[in-house]
């Protein structure tokens, strides 16, 4: 009796098991069967995995059905046929007819094309296109897949930027864009993914900083931004109660600054291969990787040159591993030496220039006196102007000046001669000794006692204003020029009379008859010395314009008085 009862129980259990785990429900939609056959053809799958005559729900590898409808496709690990490998394709048009499809996984299956548009699959919750050799960029049509919880594009050849519209996928829990060539910055919109648990952006070309809002995602447990070009200081999570991530991987970036509470707020932190500086506290958790930074009192750090170069390039302050920066001090001292050398060098140059100018001016004033402004014997070769300005005699042949030329007189107007002496010298100012009628007086040739040849200028103050005469006379007595000869003396006729009724005569030595007599009839107001030390008639301005300053040095041109 007991055996029979046991046998009945076994039969009932077998029937129950058969009813529960018997033959699966066959695919009930002809449209979905046609869509699967089209997908099989475009992917080039082998008949061994997807036999054409068999039921997809019961016999095709990776096809999941519910109530006779396709709800999931997983071709990860499947292989193409020989013909499919020659022309790999991925036609997603057929997937549009799988209206209940909630999961598609092609991880590791080569799809060397741009990312297909899957916006028709509104029920899709899991999309894994990792390791598919996809190219192009992530387009914004994924924002229509509002039911996505997992989006994986890792290990492809994607470029471009992270589209901010991904931040609208409010149900997203896993976002993996690692190992691509995505550039630019991390969009702030990713911080709006409040259900995000796993965020992997590692091994890209991202730049900028990590948005602060990412540290505030309440469900975040894993954050990997390693192997990028991200920079900035580490976040301080002490004031952020929502940050509960357990694993932070910030390695191989360009983060700098000091350590923060990030180390104490997580289960594991990888900060290796950055430029974090400062002293490591004694209570630092052991679950932190700090290698290849710029930290003090820990091993396996970057070199001083590497850290110094980085902080200098970013114009940041570096603590020099807690050691006084002798290199920077040396550079600053060297820069200070250069600055001081420039300042004192410039000041010294100015001082030297001033001293040179003072010496030149002093020599010039001394030359005015030494060149014989006054009376006395003047050797042959002296030259005269009708304005009575001179620089002294010029020796014949360009030789040295004779000693007689250094005649020093107490008065700038030279020696005072009597009117009778001048009358005798010019034969009573006879017409035979008249050289020229000047605009301010007449020029006469004369011979003083001792045979000194002179040119005498006679001024009639009744026709020449006193003020003009005094200005001219003062100028003549003080100025010097390489083409002029000195004033030798003066004479006042009838000194007991009033000044306006007087006649003054002043003259200059010209010890021999000179070549300018051949040009005495040329209209001119001055007798000048040219570059060959020959006397020329004409105004000083005309001669300067004609002969220029080619034979004068720079200092002479700077110091000469205007004509």
TrEMBL record:
Concerning InterPro entries, the annotation shows: cNMP-bd_dom, Kinase-like_dom_sf, Leu-rich_rpt, Leu-rich_rpt_typical-subtyp, LRR_dom_sf, LRR_N_plant-typ, PRK1-6/SRF4-like
Q: Which residues cross the membrane?
A: 336-361
Pfam families the UniProt entry points to:
LRR_1, LRR_8, LRRNT_2
Q: Kindly indicate where the leader peptide sits in this chain.
A: 1-22
Q: Where is this protein found?
A: Membrane
Q: Can you supply one Gene Ontology CC term for this chain's record? A: membrane
Where is this chain primarily localised?
membrane
**PROSITE patterns per UniProt:** CNMP_BINDING_3
Q: Which residues form the Cyclic nucleotide-binding domain?
A: 434-510
Q: Which organism is it from?
A: Tetracentron sinense
Instruction: Output this protein's name.
Output: Cyclic nucleotide-binding domain-containing protein
Keyword set includes Transit peptide: no
Lineage of the source organism?
Eukaryota, Viridiplantae, Streptophyta, Embryophyta, Tracheophyta
Going by the UniProt record, its keywords in alphabetical order are: Leucine-rich repeat, Membrane, Repeat, Signal, Transmembrane, Transmembrane helix
């Amino acid at each position: 009796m007991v055996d029979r009862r046991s046998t009945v129980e076994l039969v009932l259990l077998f029937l129950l098991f058969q009813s529960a785990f018997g033959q699966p429900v066959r695919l009930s939609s002809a449209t979905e069967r046609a869509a699967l056959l089209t997908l099989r053809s475009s992917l080039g799958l082998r008949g061994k995995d997807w036999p054409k005559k068999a039921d997809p729900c019961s016999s095709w590898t990776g096809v999941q059905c519910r109530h006779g409808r396709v709800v999931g496709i997983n071709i990860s690990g499947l292989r193409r046929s020989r013909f499919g490998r020659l022309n790999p394709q991925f036609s997603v048009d057929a997937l549009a007819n799988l209206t209940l499809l909630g999961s598609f996984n092609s991880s590791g299956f080569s799809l060397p094309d741009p990312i297909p548009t899957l916006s028709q699959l509104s029920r899709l919750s899991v999309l894994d296109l990792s390791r598919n050799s996809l190219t192009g960029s992530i387009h914004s049509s994924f924002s229509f897949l509002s039911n996505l919880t997992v989006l994986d594009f890792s290990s492809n050849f994607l470029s471009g930027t992270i589209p901010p519209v991904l931040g609208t996928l409010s149900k997203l829990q896993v976002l993996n864009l690692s190992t691509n060539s995505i550039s630019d910055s991390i969009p702030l919109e990713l911080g709006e993914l409040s259900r995000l648990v796993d965020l992997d952006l590692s091994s890209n070309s991202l730049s900028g900083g990590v948005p602060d809002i990412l540290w505030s995602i309440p469900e975040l447990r894993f954050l990997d931004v390693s192997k990028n070009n991200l920079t900035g200081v580490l976040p301080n999570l002490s004031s952020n109660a929502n940050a509960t991530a357990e694993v932070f991987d910030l390695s191989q970036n360009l983060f700098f600054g000091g350590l923060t509470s990030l180390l104490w707020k997580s289960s594991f932190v990888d900060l290796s291969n950055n430029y974090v500086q400062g002293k490591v506290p004694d209570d630092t958790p052991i679950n932190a990787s700090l290698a290849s930074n710029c930290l003090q009192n820990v091993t396996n750090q970057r070199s001083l040159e590497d850290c110094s170069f980085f902080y200098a390039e970013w114009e940041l302050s570096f603590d020099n591993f807690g050691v006084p920066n002798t290199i920077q001090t040396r550079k600053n001292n060297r820069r200070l030496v250069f600055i001081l050398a420039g300042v004192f060098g410039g000041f010294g140059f100015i001082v030297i220039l001033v001293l040179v100018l003072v010496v030149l001016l002093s020599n010039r004033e001394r030359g005015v006196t030494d060149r014989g402004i006054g009376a006395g014997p003047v050797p042959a070769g002296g030259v005269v102007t009708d304005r009575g300005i001179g620089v002294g005699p010029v020796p014949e042949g360009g030789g040295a000046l004779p000693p007689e030329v250094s005649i020093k007189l107490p008065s700038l107007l030279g020696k005072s001669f009597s009117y009778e002496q001048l009358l005798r010298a010019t034969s009573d100012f006879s017409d035979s000794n008249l050289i020229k009628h000047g605009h301010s007086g007449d020029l006469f040739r004369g011979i003083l006692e001792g045979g000194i040849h002179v040119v005498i200028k006679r001024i009639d103050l009744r026709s020449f204003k006193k003020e003009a005469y005094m200005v001219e006379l003062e100028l003549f007595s003080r100025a010097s020029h390489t083409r002029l000869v000195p004033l030798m003396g003066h004479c006042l006729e009838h000194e007991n009379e009033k000044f306006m009724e007087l006649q003054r005569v002043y003259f200059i030595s010209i010890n021999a008859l000179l070549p300018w007599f051949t040009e005495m009839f040329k209209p001119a107001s001055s007798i000048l010395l040219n570059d060959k030390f020959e006397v020329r008639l004409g105004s000083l301005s005309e001669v300067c314009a004609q002969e220029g300053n080619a034979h004068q040095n720079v200092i002479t041109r700077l110091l000469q008085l205007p004509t």
